[in-house]
Amino acid sequence: MSREQINSIQQGDSPTPNTGSEREPKRSGVVGWTVFCGVLGALTALIAVLAGPGASALGWRVSGGSPTPTSGAVQQLQPGTGHGSGPVGAPAERTPLPVDGAAVQAAVASAQGQAPGTYAAALASLDGDGVSIDMGGRTPMIPASSLKVMTSVAVLNALGPSHRFTTKVVRNPDGSFVLVGGGDPLLGSTTTSHPYAKDVTTATLEALAEPTMRVAAEQGGEIRLGFDDSLFAGAVWHPDWATEDRTYAAPVSALVVDGAATTRDTSSPSAETARIFAERLRSQGFIVAEQGPVISSGGEVVAETSSAPVAAMVRECLTHSDNFIAEMLLRQLAIASGQQASFSGGAAALTAELEKMGLWQSGMAIVDGSGLSMNNRLTPSSLVSALQKGAREPRLSSLLVGLPVGCATGTLADRFAADVARPACGQVRAKTGTLNSVSALAGYTPTSDGSLVAFALMGNELPSDVDVRGWFDHVAAKLAECRCSA
Fold this sequence. Notes:
Elements: H1 3-8, H2 40-48, H3 53-58, H4 71-76, H5 101-109, E1 118-125, E2 133-135, H6 147-159, E3 166-171, E4 177-180, H7 205-219, E5 223-228, H8 269-282, E6 288-293, E7 300-306, H9 310-320, H10 323-336, H11 343-356, H12 380-392, H13 398-401, E8 429-435, E9 438-446, E10 452-460, H14 469-480
Parallel strand pairs: 4-5, 5-6
Antiparallel strand pairs: 1-2, 1-10, 3-4, 3-7, 8-9, 9-10
Helix pairs in contact: 5-14, 6-9, 6-10, 6-12, 7-8, 9-10, 10-11
């Protein structure tokens, strides 16, 4: 994959809406992902050209980079030929270096700050195939939002990175109009209204309004407008999710606009979307009679708009740990797999896709796509295997491109603050996972001598009255500064 292809699926960084962000312990509040707002475009261009014959094409090898990047430095950063070497010209090509398992295990063992609890970990060469450092790596654990790694890799594999979803307006034979949802998680009301509009070019209701008004004007009379969200089935909230956790996810529907950020009635986000569309038509002088939910069939398509590609959705989902996007993509995976587009259908589809990809292990369980449920189970070694697939297979490369960057983007923007964790800054790319009593970190980092280590660290039954993430951060930093090449 070329730099241009990598850049085409991601365009920067933006604040995360409260409706979709990863659940964090109440003591810490919402993750501070705005620290380096606007610099992800430069970082992802960096990732796309980093050293290694295969890595340069795939966009996931890291070489050089400041251990404590500032906004200005990140924007100008180019890959160096060694760890922390600073700006240079073209990256040096290198053969991927194997990982010394004993050195990696020693690096993990030297990390400080482990809280009481149950831990499991798996580590390996990102360039490899299979786990080489197993520290309870096949133990099923509650993954929290690290589950999004699996949701993302499965959706990329099943649908493809360039797949798009269509939202349309249909005119029925009786002259009424229907706004038909296509399950686009990034649908905006206007080109600037979606929380991620600065990152991604989104489909909009605005684009549907113009051709709809043209047809309505030719037809004459008032516009009778209904909406069809029947593409998805079942509840908009998962029954496993605690009421307070609904703060961290928008209601799931095939017709949601602006990430449901303005939804008044969370039991029917589709009705809110139809209302916004109706107001758009009214603002241009049309009389609109809203007719509520209908099932469109046999009508004429008068307007349609295509979503951003799946690769861009995966990138936003992973960078910002967006629960809403994860659950919407889970429904789309269900449809692609011939399952009902519900929570249970999506869980069955994700399970089947992971089995097909060779990523399923004994004891694992899938309940939702975001990781909000405490009944999900993954193993660290399955996460490492998924990351390795993302490195090997161009179709899946958005999995690694979307991972947050230490001290710079997404849910890692405010991590690695302790002095002992600073070596992870600008080096570690990883997906976080946080629930009460649960913490996880799964990603990869270059070592100081040029190898790439994939890792998945998971902790369950952790104390709820302290911040337990320090140990995870310290492990990642130890790996980044490790001389771990074999």
